Amino acid sequence: MEIADWRAKIDGLDEQIVKLLCERAAAAAAIGELKAKTGGNIYEPDREQNVLAHVQSCNTGELPPAQLTVIYERIMDVMRGLQRRA
Ligand SMILES: O=C(O)C(=O)C[C@]1(C(=O)O)C=C[C@@H](O)C=C1
């Protein structure tokens, strides 16, 4: 494949990634609303460690583990921000 073909593939993958990130954000927002009602903490470090372990178990090997952790730490940071704004 040429660069243009790989870029078209990346565009298609990005469409799926953004759709899934939006679904994840909606789930995190729903959790945030429940926490607001029950007085739960937005930041749950134990759960975040479980999420990080789970995504490592899904890694098929193309992403270095440390980089996958960086990506997910950032995602969860954004999710916490959404929960604080709700
Ligand atoms: O599971 C939760 O309690 C959430 O609020 C979701 C989530 C996440 O994005 O996965 C976000 C913030 C918490 O610190 C832990 C996990």
TrEMBL record:
Protein name in the entry: chorismate mutase
Matching Gene3D superfamilies: Chorismate mutase
Isomerase recorded as keyword: yes
Domain Chorismate mutase: 1-86
EC number of this enzyme: 5.4.99.5
A single Gene Ontology CC term: cytoplasm
Organism listed in the record: Terriglobus roseus (strain DSM 18391 / NRRL B-41598 / KBS 63)
Alphabetized InterPro entries for the sequence: Chorismate_II_sf (IPR036263), Chorismate_mutase-related (IPR051331), CM_dom_sf (IPR036979), CM_II_prokaryot (IPR002701), G/b/e-P-prot_chorismate_mutase (IPR010957)
